[in-house]
């Protein structure tokens, strides 16, 4: 996968990840006490979607028309998605978008910042120098936001447990390294040791099922607390598409989060399908104990 996320900004994977992030933030905010939002791979924070058509040397086919573009004019959005789309539209408008079609898209740092309450705090990590420079320009002056030019996996050791004793950690790496899944598992292990009740959201691509199953095996070896697996596929398993879908593992999800996430993904599975065989899954890797 290409590290420079602006090539993919606003695509189906962003829609899935960010719509669920909105619901995770809402779930944690049901309690008055603040929390730390830690983004281990924050990227540049916001994206001009016209850049998605420009590769390093060649014109590219933009991906956002089959992502946020498909939701832009829908009038039948379920309540669980309407807030996310409204947030993106407001972000676009505030930066000069005409509203006729998406132009400016918020990354996870801006989504979290726009949803954060005064008692919530953000720590945003990005190790790529050029991406960090753009992140710094976008968010350095925002209150209760700290920026770290560093490997985000190491940030768990430095920042957990936070003073608030509550945290939502988003791990959304670029998956350029062959050992990315292994590094995620190690980071989760350390994070849970430092904050056992923390909420950890781990994004992953659906390319090779065997790699994902090995990832799950590694996670389950940690003897996890309640853990939810959410997946969205935009094509069938026999498709030639390299990226067939994506998933999000949520460790310690907020109470009843699955009751929102499941129907949300079902709706997106139909709205964002690109080939027959698309669909979604919402299941427990480690069930809640009642």
How would you describe this structure to a colleague?
The strands form two sheets. This protein has an eight-stranded mixed β-sheet, with helices on both faces. The protein has a two-stranded antiparallel ribbon with strand order 2-3. The protein has 290 residues and is an alpha/beta fold. 37% of the residues lie in helices and 19% in strands. α1 packs across α3, α1 runs parallel beside α4 and α1 packs antiparallel against α9. β6, α7 and β7 form a beta-alpha-beta unit. The radius of gyration is 18 Å and the shape is globular. It has one domain: Vaccinia Virus protein VP39 (Rossmann fold, 3-Layer(aba) Sandwich). The protein is built from nine helices and ten strands.
Oligomer: single chain
The radius of gyration over CA amounts to 18 Å
CATH homologous superfamily placement: Vaccinia Virus protein VP39
Number of helical runs? Answer: 9
Q: Domains counted in the coordinates: how many?
A: 1
Mean of residue pLDDT values = 93
What is the total tally of β strands? 10
Order of helices and strands: HEEHHEHEHEHEHEHEEHE
Tell me the overall shape: globular
Topology of this protein?
Layout: H1 12-28, E1 36-39, E2 46-48, H2 68-71, H3 79-94, E3 104-106, H4 108-115, E4 121-125, H5 129-139, E5 145-148, H6 152-159, E6 167-171, H7 180-194, E7 199-206, H8 209-220, E8 227-233, E9 245-251, H9 257-271, E10 279-286
Parallel strand pairs: 1-4, 1-6, 4-5, 6-7
Antiparallel strand pairs: 2-3, 7-9, 8-9, 8-10
Helix pairs in contact: 1-3, 1-4, 1-9, 6-7, 7-8
């Amino acid at each position: 996968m290409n590290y420079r996320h602006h090539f993919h900004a606003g695509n189906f994977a962003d829609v899935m990840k960010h719509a669920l992030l909105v619901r995770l933030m809402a779930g944690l905010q049901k309690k008055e006490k603040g929390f730390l939002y830690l983004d281990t791979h924050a990227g540049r924070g916001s994206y001009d979607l016209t850049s998605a058509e420009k590769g390093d040397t060649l014109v590219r086919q933009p991906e956002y028309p089959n992502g946020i573009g498909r939701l832009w004019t829908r009038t039948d959005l379920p309540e669980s998605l309407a807030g996310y789309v409204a947030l993106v539209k407001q972000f676009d408008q505030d930066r000069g978008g005409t509203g006729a079609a998406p132009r400016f898209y918020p990354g996870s740092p801006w989504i979290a910042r726009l949803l954060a309450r005064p008692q919530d705090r953000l720590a945003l990590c990005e190790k790529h120098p050029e991406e960090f420079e753009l992140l710094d320009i976008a968010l350095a002056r925002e209150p209760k936001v700290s920026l770290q030019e560093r490997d985000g996996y190491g940030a768990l050791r430095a920042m957990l447990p936070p003073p608030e004793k509550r945290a939502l950690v988003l791990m959304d790496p670029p998956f350029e390294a062959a050992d990315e899944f292994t590094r995620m598992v190690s980071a989760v292990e350390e994070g849970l040791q430092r904050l056992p009740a923390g909420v950890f959201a781990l994004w992953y691509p659906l390319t090779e099922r065997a790699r994902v199953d090995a990832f799950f095996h590694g996670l389950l070896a940690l003897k996890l607390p309640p853990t939810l697996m959410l997946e969205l596929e935009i094509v069938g398993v026999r498709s030639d598409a390299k990226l067939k879908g994506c998933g999000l593992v949520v460790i310690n999800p907020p109470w009843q989060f699955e009751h929102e996430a499941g129907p949300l993904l079902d709706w997106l599975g139909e709205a964002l399908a690109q080939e027959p065989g698309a669909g979604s899954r919402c299941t427990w890797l480690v069930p809640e104990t009642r």
